[in-house]
Amino acid sequence: MEQLAEKVLENSRGHVARAITLVESTKPSHRLQAHELLQRLAPHTGNAFRVGISGVPGAGKSTFIDAIGVKLIAEHHHKVAVLAVDPSSSRTGGSILGDRTRMADLSNREGAFVRPSPSSGHLGGVARATRESMLVLEAAGYDVIIVETVGVGQSEVAVSGMVDTFLMLQVARTGDQLQGIKRGILELADVIAITKADGDNESAARVAARELTIAMKLISGEPDKRRAPVLTCSSYTGAGLEEVWETVTKHRAALEADGDLVTRRLAQQRDWLWNMVREEVLESLRTAPGVRRVAADVEARVAAEAISALEGSAEILAAYAAAVPTLAWAAPPRDPLDADKA
User: Which of 13, 87, 179, 213 has CA atoms 20 to 30 A from the CA of 140?
Assistant: First the structure.
């Protein structure tokens, strides 16, 4: 782990990829190694600009990231890393992981690192280890980390809980301004951009931006509360991309000036802590031997309508409660310096 950490800090691309694979692994021995690796990298993290990008399917998220990423490298001299989360099949568990094909230009840039990851059934539009992967990339020297989520739904808002600025992409002709109220995700957006504002669609994009601006006013009636600005852009022509990035950076600068950036990141760490606890509890519920023995019988009786689902769940939870004292979670070793740091 010491050698791997050194290679990550040197931005060896192969070792950065290996480190991300390690933190994504669910194997207990790998998780202990990942914990040690992240401890070694921790002093070199936290300095990047974390941007989350989400949007409805077909909004052009990958194409937008390809265009804006190339601009950031070529004109702003940033080092850009992209964590592209791909939805996993609920039947086979597989993912296409084809986002690199939509980011061909960015993927071939020296200052870019594009990593597709499967969601693996994790809700919120992000992968289980997205946050840890961000830390690895920050330690490798990437100063702009972009997290692209899967197509959003009502619950896919976890990305807003791990980035500094959340950029929401929308397209024109997807409904009236009431959609802005119906989609709760817009309440979490810091900046909104209407994409594909080119050719015959340019005027429709501007109309959509005006309607969405009205919708944002309806979401929050507080006059002093900041509302997410709505802009238009085209990844094809490049029009509006600079304005979108300026608005994104202004939001982050405002957070930093007010001291809210530190507060936001601390709150995100706390939320992610409990998210990981929930994941561990669910995983132990699925894998506990005592539960697995009872579950098959309970499922059969529920299927035969011998008992209700409520009764069956009570039996499984009772089996889990009995198994809890014997469960051996892979608790990482405590850092002896933690007390001094506190």
Answer: 87
Identify the bridge partners of residue 80 per DSSP, sorted by sequence position. 112, 144
Tell me the per-residue pLDDT of 46-83, one tens digit each, with 9 for 90 and over: 999 999 998 877 888 989 999 999 999 999 999 999 99
- Return the residue matching tokens 């989400």: 54
Rounded Cα distance, 279 and 262, in Å: 26
Identify the pLDDT of residue 340: 44
DSSP letter at 74 equals H
- pTM summary value: 0.82
Burial of 172 (0-12, 13-18, 19+ CB in 10 A): buried
* Residues 40 and 50 occupy one common structural domain: no
Regarding whether 151 and 23 lie in a shared domain, the answer is no
Q: How many helices (H) and strands (E) does the chain have?
A: 14, 7
First and final C-alpha spacing in the chain? 25
Residue 71 near residue 241 (C-beta atoms within 8 A) = yes
Work out the number of other CB atoms within 10 angstroms of the CB of residue 82: 27
The boundaries of the domain holding residue 327 are 265-333
Name the E strands within the chain.
49-55, 80-86, 112-118, 144-148, 165-170, 191-194, 230-232
Percent of the chain with pLDDT strictly greater than 70? 80
243, 266 Cβ separation under 8 angstroms = no
Looking at the structure, do residues 293 and 319 belong to the same domain, yes or no?
Answer: yes
pLDDT of residue 96: 47
Structure tokens at 315: 């039996």
In a domain, 302, yes or no: yes
**Shared domain check, 274 and 188:** no
Q: How far apart (Å, rounded) are the C-alpha atoms in residues 82 and 207?
A: 31
159 and 124 Cβ atoms separated by less than 8 Å: yes
d(CA 209, CA 229): 9
φ, ψ for residue 234, nearest 5 deg: -135, 120
| Same domain flag for 234 and 307 | no
Whether residues 20 and 151 share a domain: the answer is no
